[in-house]
C-alpha cells in the first residue's frame, strides 16, 4: 500500500516553455502533498506544501508564479514549471502524507528528471 | 530552522560487512523517517521512528529523541544496499513538513 506515482519520469523541454508534472496517490487519499527539488549529489529541498482544495504554501525563496501547484483532488497534485530556463533543470519529487494514520508519514513518488535546453 | 546532519557522508563497504549510520538533529521532533534513495532516484521508506527501536530484516533503527539523534544499522550488507540514505524529521511546530538530512552515500562492493 501507499504507492505514489509521478508522470512523466523524465522530460526535456526548450527554454521558455512550460512543463507540467503530475503526482498521484494510487491507493490512498492524500490530504497533503509535497513537492521537493533535488540537485545532483545534494539532499532534497522542500519547495511547497499543497492541501486539497486550497492554495499551496511555498517555502522561502521559491517563486510561486514560476512553480504553479494545483491540488484539485485527494489523489492528484500537479506542478507546472512556467517559462522554464536551464537553471530549472533538476530532479523533482513529490510525496503524499497519510495524515491521520501514522502521524504524517510521507510516501514518495519516483521523481521526474527535468532538463531544460 | 532545524539542522539535520548525517555521518559519515560517504561509506564504502565490502559485501557482508555491518555499518552504522548516524543522524543528529538540533531541535525537538515529532517525526523521524529513514529513507534509501536507490540509484534511479526512488526514495524507499525504511522506518518511521520518532522514538524507540525498530527492526526490519537486516536493518534496524534507534531514535533517542531526548538526545536528538537516530542510528540506522545495516547488517550483512549487500550490493543492493548501495545508494544514499537520508534521515528526515518533522520538527515541533512545523506541521508535517519534512526536513532532510545531508545524506550518507553508501557503496557496497563485492
The helix-and-strand class of chain A reads mainly beta
Structural class of chain B: mainly beta
Order of helices and strands of chain A: EEEEEEEEEEE
First-last Cα distance of chain A: 37 Å
Average pLDDT number of chain B: 94
Tally of DSSP β-strands of chain B: 11
For the report, how would you describe the main beta sheet of chain A? 7 strands, mixed
Task: Report low-confidence residues of chain B grouped into runs of 5 or more.
Answer: none
Helix tally of chain A equals: 0
Shape of chain B: globular
How many distinct beta strands of chain A? 11
- In round numbers, the mean pLDDT of chain A is 91
The H/E string of chain B reads EEEEEEEEEEE
Based on Cα principal axes, name the global outline of chain A: globular
What percent of residues of chain A are in strands? over 45%
Oligomer: heterodimer
Unreliable spans of chain A are: none
List the helices and strands and how they pair.
The complex is a heterodimer of chains A (117) and B (110).
Chain A: E1 4-7, E2 10-13, E3 19-25, E4 32-38, E5 44-51, E6 57-58, E7 67-73, E8 76-81, E9 90-97, E10 106-108, E11 112-116
Parallel strand pairs in A: 2-11
Antiparallel strand pairs in A: 1-3, 3-8, 4-5, 4-9, 5-6, 7-8, 9-10, 9-11
Chain B: E1 4-7, E2 10-14, E3 19-25, E4 29-37, E5 43-48, E6 52-56, E7 59-64, E8 69-74, E9 83-91, E10 99-100, E11 104-109
Parallel strand pairs in B: 2-11
Antiparallel strand pairs in B: 1-3, 3-8, 4-5, 4-9, 6-7, 7-8, 9-10, 9-11
